[in-house]
Amino acid sequence: MLIVALAWIYVVLLMALTEPTFVAGMMTFLFYCALPLGILFYLTGGKRRKRRRAEAAARAARDKEPPA
Hints:
This is Transmembrane protein. The chain crosses the membrane at residues 28-45. Keywords: Membrane, Transmembrane, Transmembrane helix. It comes from Pseudoduganella chitinolytica. Helix content is 85%, strand content 0%. It is an all-alpha fold. The protein has one domain (2-62). The longest helix has 23 residues, at 22-44.
């Protein structure tokens, strides 16, 4: 997944560099790269966030128990 994202960043960066103005290049990079990849990484990271939250809760419960 990461290699595909890096390749997409490269492609969009080259697209942005060929735009006639700096503002157009920045908008191209933002709307074709940063925003879609941010959404994609947020959506695909849901299981990871849930697992980390569960591990933190388990660790907190374990630390809360009195020693036997």
